[in-house]
Design brief:
This protein has six helices and four strands; from the N terminus they run E-H-H-E-H-H-E-H-H-E. By secondary structure, the chain is mainly alpha-helical.
C-alpha cells in the first residue's frame, strides 16, 4: 500500500491496480504490508472499488482525522490560487496533505476493498500536493483534489464530514 491504510488484521489483500508514488513522509513510514497493495495506489478515482449499493464503508478515527486535515489543506490551496496565500503557505498546505496521508498509512485499519477505494481518492490528493511542491499547481490539480474530497463521503461513513473543516 503506497498510500492508504493498513488492512484490518487478518484481512486478505484486495486485488491490485497500478502503483503510485507515496509522499516522502509516507515512504518513510516503513510499512512492509503496504508493498503488497502498492499496485492499487495509483488507481483513478473512478476506477477504485465502490461500496455495495446504498452502503458506505466504515471509517476509523485516523481516517476521519486525516481526511479532515486534507480537506482543510485543500481549502487553503483554493485560496492560494486566488492569490490569498504566499508560496510558503501553499507549500505548507502540501506538507499537511502529505503528513495526513502518512498518518493514515501508519494508523488506520480498513477492509481491503475499502482500502483500495481510499487509494483511488488519495492518489489525486498526493499528486496535487506534489504539484504544489514542484511549482505547477493550478486549477486542474485543485479540481482533481476537490473531486476526490467530494467522493469521500459518498464512499465512506464519516459522521463529521458535513461539519466545516477545522483550520
Amino acid at each position: 500500500m503506497a498510500a492508504g491504510c493498513s488492512p484490518r488484521p487478518g484481512a486478505e489483500p484486495a486485488a491490485a491496480a497500478p502503483a503510485a508514488q507515496a509522499p516522502p513522509a509516507a515512504a518513510d513510514a516503513g510499512h512492509d504490508a503496504h508493498a503488497a497493495h502498492a499496485a492499487h495506489a495509483d488507481a483513478p478515482v473512478d476506477a477504485a472499488p465502490l461500496p455495495p449499493a446504498g452502503q458506505r464503508w466504515a471509517t476509523d478515527a485516523p481516517l476521519r482525522a486525516g481526511m479532515a486535515r486534507i480537506r482543510s489543506a485543500v481549502e487553503a490551496l483554493q485560496h492560494g490560487l486566488m492569490g490569498h496565500l504566499t508560496e510558503a503557505q501553499q507549500k505548507d498546505a502540501a506538507v499537511q496533505v502529505d503528513a495526513a496521508v502518512a498518518d493514515m498509512i501508519a494508523n488506520c485499519k480498513l477492509e481491503p476493498e475499502a482500502d483500495a477505494s481510499l487509494h483511488g481518492l488519495l492518489a489525486p490528493l498526493v499528486a496535487g500536493a506534489g504539484a504544489v511542491r514542484e511549482g505547477r499547481f493550478g486549477q486542474p490539480e485543485l479540481a482533481a483534489m476537490q473531486d476526490a474530497l467530494a467522493q469521500y463521503p459518498q464512499r465512506f461513513d464519516d459522521p463529521g464530514w458535513d461539519q466545516p473543516a477545522q483550520e
